[in-house]
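PROTOCOL LOG
Step 1. Enter all chains and additional molecules of the complex.
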Amino acid sequence: MFALVDCNNFYVSCERVFRPDLNNKPVVVLSNNDGCIISRSEEAKALGLKMAEPVFQRFELVKKAGVFVFSSNYTLYGDLSQRVMETLRGVAPVIEIYSIDEAFLDLSGLDIDFQKWAEEIKKIVWRITGIPISIGIAPTKTLAKIANKAAKKGNGIFIIRNDRHRDCMIRNTAIEKVWGVGRQYSKLLFRNRIFSAYDYTLLDDNWLRSQMKVMGLRIKTELLGESCIPLELIIPSKKAIATTRAFGRKTKSKRLLKEAVSTYAARCGEKLRKQSSLANLITVFIHTDPFNQNDLQYNKSKSITLPVATNCTQELIKYALKLLDDIFLPGYFYKKAGVIIEGLEPQMLWQPDLFEALNREKYNRLSVVVDGLNNYFGRDTVKVAIQGSGEEWKLRQEKLSNRFTTNWNETLVVKV
DNA sequence: TCTGGGGTCCTAGGACCC
DNA sequence: TCTGGGGTCCTAGGACCC
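Step 2. Run joint prediction.
Step 3. Record the structure below.
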C-alpha cells in the first residue's frame, strides 16, 4: 500500500502559519511577478477565483470581497516544506518527496490500522508545522492520487481498501483527473468515448501502447490495482537547470538584458554547484510580451556547447552574454529572458582540456568562497559587476510576506 | 499597468559504428 | 534477379507533472 500525503492549499497554508488572523478568510498567493493566482484558500475558491487566473482580471472581486493577496515567497514555502517532509520521515521511513507539497509513503509490510495511523500523522504534522494535510491510501501510486482527491473532499483521509472499493472509485473518476492524463490525452480519449478511469481500463493494450506509449499502459495497470510505478527513493541529480523570468517592466535596453541574463546565468551556476555538477551546454532565450498584440513580437533562443564542462559563474556569464549578443535585436520591447544549462555531469568526472590556460582550480576556490559569503550574508552580497542592481527589471513582488523562518530580520514580532 | 517557473520521460529518425 | 545485421548516440518534439 502507498500513502500520498498532500498539503492543503500549500502556499496559502504557509502564509497562514504566521498569520492566524487569516484563517477562515479568503487568501490567494500569486505567481512570480504577481501575475496569476496559483494557490487559493477554500474561501477564495468559493468566491469563484480560478487556478492560474491572472489576478488583474479579478481585481474588482478581490477588492470587494477583501481577499488577502500575497506574492509568492518561495524561501518560506521551501523551508516549511522541508519541515513537513522531515516530520513525515519521522513517522514513515520509506518516503519519496514528490513535489514541494506532496510525498508518497510506502506502507507495505506495515501491520497497522491505516485509518488510525493517518489520523495520527495528520495531527503530528499539524502540531509540528502548522500545515494541514490530506492523506490518500491505496495499492498503487495512481490510485493513491485518486484517494487523495477524495480525501480533500471529505475529512482529509481516504483509503481504497479492496477491489470492490477500487472499482467503485474508478467508475466515479473522470479520466482527465487521472495522474498522467493531461489535456492532449484527454482530448484523444474523449474522441474515443472514454470518459471515466473505468472506461480507460477496458482499452486494448495494443491501442494504448500505440497512442499513449508505455506510460499509457502503466496507467491502466495501476488503475487495475497492480503497482508498476515504484517509489523513487534516491533523489536523482538534475539533468537540466533553468533560470527564467519575466521582467517587472518590459525593456528595450540591451544593457538591462545583459544584467538580467548574467544574473540568471549566475543563479544557474549556484544551483549547479549545489548539486556538484558541471554543464556542457548553455541556452539563452529572450522574447517580447506575447499578450501585448500591439507590440512587434520577437522570440529567439540560441545554444552553445561549452569547450569544457564547467560550473564557474564567470564562465557561464561569458557564454550567456555572447549568446545574448547573437540573438539581441534592437527596437523590441523585451518582457522575458532565460538561461538553461544542460548536459549536466558529476563534477567528479571532470575531464580537463589539455591545452587550456585557464586556472580552473583558482576559480573553483573562488566559487566556494563566494557561495559561502552569499549563503551567510544573503544572495548577491558578492556578484559579478555586470549583473547590476536589478532595480529596473526585477520581479514585481508587492505583497511579499516575511521570510519568518530563515531570516533573523524577518522573524515574527510579538508585542505584549 | 497587468498573464509563472522549473522540471521529467518517451519516441522517432538520422548519423554513425563494426 | 540481386546489395546484411545489429547496434548506439544524439536531438527535436510532444506529452506530462507540480
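Step 4. Note key features.
Residues 30-36, 38, 52-57, 59, 72, 213-215, 238-246, 249, 289-291, 336, 338, 340, 396 of chain A lie near DNA strand B (CB under 10 Å from a C1').
The longest helix of chain A spans residues 254-274.
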